[in-house]
Amino acid sequence: MEWIIKRNYYKESTHGALFINRKFICFTLELPWQNNIRNISCIPEGTYGLQRRISQRFGNHLHIQDVPGRSMILLHPANNARHELQGCIAPVLTLNGMGKGMDSRRALNRLLIHYQDAVDNEREVYLTIQYNTHEFSRTLQKTDAQIF
User: Are 144 and 95 in contact (CB under 8 A)?
Assistant: First the structure.
């Protein structure tokens, strides 16, 4: 099963929209692109495996596998990219500012349900990260304008 994040890059942050089977599931927050520098940059575009992970800090979340030049890149709850992320990806239900969102834990729980469904059906889950097409970019910009 392929999950797709379509990104928009901004100076202060990176915003995305996550789709499963062409259906919008949630927005994503990331740090801005800074040449894949550890702890200060979002990760490169590409396709990555996902695995469930549990930690004291984040509870149930997902580990993004085999990111070039990086380790321990997670998909975990966070509502403020600058203050809560170090290269990871945060799902959010609503964007409410540059690098800011709301209801991250609820968004992650939605993703974990989809992930478990895939595992139960013996399907691997991959995350593809790509730059937005022009058509989607215009849609997201309209959404951004409404929420900022």
Answer: yes
* Token pair listed for 98: 């540059």
Domain coordinates of the chain in residue numbers?
2-147
* Cα gap 119→64, rounded to integer Å: 16
The whole-angstrom separation of Cα 29 and Cα 94 is: 10
Global pTM reads 0.89
- pLDDT classification of 133: cutoffs 50, 70, 90: low
Beta strands across the sheet bearing 23-30: 73-75, 59-64, 46-55, 126-131, 2-9, 14-20, 23-30, 90-92
Residues 53-66 have pLDDT tens digits of 999 999 999 999 99
Whether residue 9 contacts residue 33, with contact meaning beta carbons closer than 8 Å, is answered with yes
The domain made up of 2-147 is a member of CATH 3.30.70: no
Calpha distance 130→127 (Å, rounded): 10
